[in-house]
Task: inverse folding
């Protein structure tokens, strides 16, 4: 179902690749202000292309890209290939080293209605506009989005394992503590095998909804401007990192909700009383035990309110009151329960659009940060959540619906600057293109 094609990747030259840690960067939507400031000080760091900050940011990025290409900072590989990309990482509190295996290639930028690439999150128009403008100006993809295909037979992993033994380069440790390794597969027969496997599958977009939708918008504009287009032009495609959702090394971390305020000057006592209408509210002595206390329990949450911890468990009989116009798969999610019964019913923030726009909520991945910010008075309360499972993501995507905002945090994130791709047609041809 999903069409992929190999690319002639653009990469830092051999001398710079030997110090690739100096040039990679976090994705545009996860990089902090402090990280940005440090990365911008390196004139060759990839952040200058992915998150330009000049007055005319896209023009500055284009000028820098041209300079890097003309001076040889970036070089294009002679042969097209599929790029194996492995990420080795550990989770907090665990000694196990995971390895998420995948590959980068171009995938056709399918419209959502085609049901070839499935989404699980809604996008923000402003962020999509930014990504579309940058892509249209550069005609260059600065970081891969993350897609998932399911292959329970693990047919492609043996080719990836073989390729990764001869890496092009690797990081010592990226900003999130992972070790990233890149290799390339240029054997036409093997590439055809990858294409056949993906041609039988849908792809779930795990990360990068705004960048993918930017590619969709750009492709739609190009189709309108070029009615004679064949469909094989490079602007029909999008750079994606594809991983097998059947793998055990695919990790999704929870994203907690931090209530910076309680609407209407709601007191702590009234907040707890309103919660008790829908939840069993159980005080706990140890706030640090909340994640273990709710682990694996459906519709269970931790609450940290002015130094006091609570376990919240939805009263089973009230779930049928959840009347949002969405699928049963979405209604079953913990985070849908939290957003509906806590944000809509208790805090009277009516509907997903109102909740998404409300400035009184922050999305925080660190459990300890949640507690410390409440203790410092920076927030009124923290709502501690379980992670979403891969099975839940698949069920929601195949139902045609989307999850509440910030439902998933696939870990680790891909990094920018490891591999670039062009969607300029004059960058694509080579003597071997017809074979692939």
Result:
């Amino acid at each position: 179902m999903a069409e992929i094609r190999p690319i002639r990747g653009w990469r830092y030259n051999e001398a710079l690749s030997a110090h690739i840690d100096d040039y990679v960067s976090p994705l545009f939507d996860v990089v902090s202000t402090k990280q940005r400031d440090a990365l911008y000080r390196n004139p060759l760091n990839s952040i200058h292309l992915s998150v330009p900050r000049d007055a005319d940011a896209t023009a500055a990025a284009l000028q820098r890209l041209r300079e890097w290409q003309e001076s040889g900072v970036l070089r294009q590989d002679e042969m097209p290939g599929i790029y194996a990309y492995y990420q080795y990482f550990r989770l907090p509190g665990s000694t196990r080293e995971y390895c998420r295996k995948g590959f980068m290639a171009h995938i056709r930028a399918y419209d959502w209605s085609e049901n070839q690439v499935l989404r699980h999150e809604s996008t923000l128009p402003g962020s999509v506009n930014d990504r579309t403008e940058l892509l249209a100006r550069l005609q260059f993809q600065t970081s891969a989005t993350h897609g998932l295909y399911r292959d329970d037979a693990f047919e492609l992993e043996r080719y990836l394992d073989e390729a990764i033994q001869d890496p092009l380069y690797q990081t010592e440790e990226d900003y999130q503590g992972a070790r990233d390794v890149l290799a390339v597969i240029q054997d036409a027969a093997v590439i055809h095998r990858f294409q056949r496997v993906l041609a039988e599958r849908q792809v779930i977009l795990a990360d990068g909804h705004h960048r993918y939708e930017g590619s969709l918008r750009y492709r739609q504009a190009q189709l309108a401007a070029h009615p004679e287009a064949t469909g094989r032009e490079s602007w029909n495609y999008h750079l994606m990192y594809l991983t097998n959702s059947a793998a055990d090394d695919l990790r999704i971390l929870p994203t907690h909700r931090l209530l910076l305020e309680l609407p209407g000057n709601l007191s702590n006592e009234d907040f707890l009383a309103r919660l008790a209408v829908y939840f069993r509210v159980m005080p706990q002595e140890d706030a640090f035990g909340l994640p273990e206390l709710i682990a694996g329990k459906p519709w269970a949450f931790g609450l940290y309110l002015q130094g006091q911890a609570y376990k919240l468990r939805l009263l089973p009989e009230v779930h049928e009151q959840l009347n949002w116009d969405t699928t049963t798969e979405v209604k079953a999610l913990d985070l849908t329960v939290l957003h509906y019964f806590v944000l809509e019913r208790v805090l009277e923030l009516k509907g997903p659009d109102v909740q998404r726009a409300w400035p009184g909520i922050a999305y925080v991945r660190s459990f300890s940060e949640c507690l410390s910010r409440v203790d410092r008075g920076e927030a009124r309360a923290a709502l501690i959540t379980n992670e979403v499972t891969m099975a839940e993501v698949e069920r929601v995507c195949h139902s045609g619906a989307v999850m509440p905002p910030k439902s998933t945090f696939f870990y680790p994130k891909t990094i920018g600057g490891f591999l670039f791709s062009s969607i300029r047609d004059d960058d694509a041809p080579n003597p071997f293109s017809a074979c692939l």
Summary: The chain has two domains: 4-251+411-435, 255-386.
